[in-house]
Amino acid sequence: MQTVTDAAALRATVRGWRNAGQNVGFVPTMGNLHAGHHSLLKLARARADRVIASVFVNPTQFGPGEDFERYPRTLAQDQAGLAEAGCDILFAPEVSTLYPFGAASSVSIHVPDLTETLEGAHRPGHFDGVATVVAKLFSLVQPDLAVFGQKDFQQLKVIERMVRDLSLPVKVMSGATLRDEDGLAMSSRNQYLTAQERARAPQIYSTLQQTRELFRQGHSWQALEQAAKARLERAGFVPDYVAIRRAEDLAEPGPDEREGLVVLVAARLGATRLIDNLPFD
Ligand code: PAF
């Protein structure tokens, strides 16, 4: 596996692959890779002749006071894991490659509607940063397909919408959320948890499971949102939201709508903010 920081070198290699009739899969990441990322890579590997992963901690998707500075940066470890997972190129650009005029002066992509709710409401500007960097990465890598995790459900929807709206020639695919044995969704941010918090953290997933079960038994989504929030509060979380939404567009379901829904949660546990979701179908 090659590690490339330079955009021109990346393009030259990709051009060579294309000339040889090979297609390209892409897995964008912020590094500190775990089994969840590797499963996305495996998916790309199964669908593409060549696979590129990027590691870039994108400054524009972090708000003031968020964890940009302390976000774990573990490039050497990531390189080893990616090589083992069959990645062809690790693209690890400098900030100046993605933001030649500086992050604050960058062109910015705003995906309306979908980004005004849930994570977008609690992290203003976050999805502008995500959409912008993903569009820039797509432009540099020029992949045929790109794989994103379902754990960041709203992010996935935002990227799908952006790709469709801008007619970008990239097939967006998604990989299932990988969980630790006790149900906690894998995330680079889990390592911020203290031992006590880590023991409590799986209650997010058990709350989602219980919510789905009660929904299947016929309870209303509004009552279940309240019940799930109260359950998390009792367990010591500070929920930003627990929301049952239409999976397709994250809109609130109609009163009798029972199909195609997903429950999404964001909650703080001490200094760590965790997100998770569970589709009902
Ligand atoms: O999901 C992530 O790791 C990031 O949001 C992404 C898609 C790599 C953009 O920085």
From TrEMBL:
The reaction proceeds by a bi uni uni bi ping pong mechanism. Keywords: ATP-binding, Cytoplasm, Ligase, Nucleotide-binding, Pantothenate biosynthesis. It comes from the Bacteria. Belongs to the pantothenate synthetase family. It comes from Luteibacter rhizovicinus DSM 16549. Pathway: Cofactor biosynthesis; (R)-pantothenate biosynthesis; (R)-pantothenate from (R)-pantoate and beta-alanine: step 1/1. Pfam families: Pantoate_ligase. It is found in: Cytoplasm. This is Pantothenate synthetase. GO terms for biological process: pantothenate biosynthetic process.
